[in-house]
Amino acid sequence: MKKRFPKIVKLTLISVYLIFLAGATVRMTGSGMGCPDWPKCFGYLIPPTTEAELLWHPNKDYNKKVVIIKDETLLVAKKTFKSSLKFNSENWKPYKKHNYAKFNVFHTWTEYINRLASAVSGIFFLFLIIVSTKFWKENKWIPIISFIAFFLMLFEAWLGKTVVDSVLKPSVITVHMVVGLIIVALMLTLHYIVNKHKKTPKKTNKLFTNLLWVAAIFSLIQIALGTQVRQYVDEQVKLLGFENKQLSLLAPDLKFYIHRSFTIAIVLVNFWLFYLNEKLTLGYKKVNWIIVLLGIEVISGILMYYADFPIGTQAVHLLFGIFLFSIQFYLLLQSRTTKN
């Protein structure tokens, strides 16, 4: 089982990226409240496919905590029972965490798939911590990092519940993503530790390593700024409606302009990295991917602003920003432990 641990680490890391993709798709499509409760969806393990399933019906069996929509409000079954010919309010209680009571099958199943991705990732994390304990005598950092990442995933699950209960409060969503980035960093560290014996560059350079620190920190700052811009967009969408999302950046605030202008510094630092890697023949092939990802980030950002959020650009912008940080962080791990 220890021999398979590197593969388990890789699959677990991929599952985290899939959660980011699913979450970005949820926000891109406005499906965050597709399931108004958590962890179930309208009280079901498998959500409904039609609104009729959420309406009250006579002579129907209802399980405890099942949710229905009645008079534009959410009601929760107090117990398991079979309905009579007339609606009996004694069997129901209002859902008090919020007053969102809409059903859209596309939004519901988009959010449900997001939750499934998280559940699958949770299974990989369980395997991860179980197998990591076998390395305790060999390298204590392997189980320590594994358990920290696992507990942060549990915290993420709680944050997911908080996001729904707060009706997509932007600040909670921002914390949700930042914690996700910490998990990515931990998993990349674990991946590096268990694959240290594989091919790595033969030399490094102090300036190159320092620039990697700057590049990674800049990416974190940019992602944080990006979450603030997304928070502004989300607030505008709430006011204007999701169908008018293209109007949300007609009058952007200062954070947007800082986010856009900071891109220049990020491009310069990363092209400097590329130049040093080529000039000094350091052998870090992943630097080439940094340039590619930067190009995708810039293009998707331009399209969002000037082309009114074309479908997919928001998800691409977020996911590839995370990939950019991931490569910078992994190169930093390699550079710090490689001899001159």
Write the layout of secondary structure elements.
Layout: H1 5-29, E1 61-62, E2 67-70, E3 73-77, E4 81-82, E5 92-94, H2 105-132, H3 141-165, H4 170-194, H5 206-240, H6 254-279, H7 286-306, H8 313-337
Give an overview in words:
- The chain contains eight helices and five strands, in the order αβββββααααααα.
- The protein is mainly alpha-helical and 340 residues long.
- The strands form two sheets. It has a three-stranded antiparallel β-sheet with strand order 2-3-5, with no helix packed on it.
- A hairpin with a 2-residue loop joins strand 2 and strand 3.
- The longest helix is centred in the middle third of the chain and has 35 residues, at 206-240.
- It starts with a helix and ends with a helix.
- The mean pLDDT is 85.
Primary descriptors:
single chain; 340 residues; 3-stranded antiparallel sheet; two-stranded antiparallel sheet; 62% helix
Q: Residue share in helices?
A: 55-70%
Mean pLDDT level: 85
Briefly note the structural class of the backbone. Answer: mainly alpha
Overall geometry? flat
Main sheet, how many strands, which sense, barrel? 3 strands, antiparallel
Q: Helix count?
A: 8
Number of E-state strands: 5
Radius of gyration, in angstroms, nearest whole number: 23 Å
Question: Could you give the distance between the termini?
Answer: 35 Å
| Pattern of helices and strands | HEEEEEHHHHHHH
Which regions have little confidence, pLDDT < 50, spanning 5+ residues? Answer: none
The fraction of residues assigned to DSSP E strands is under 5%
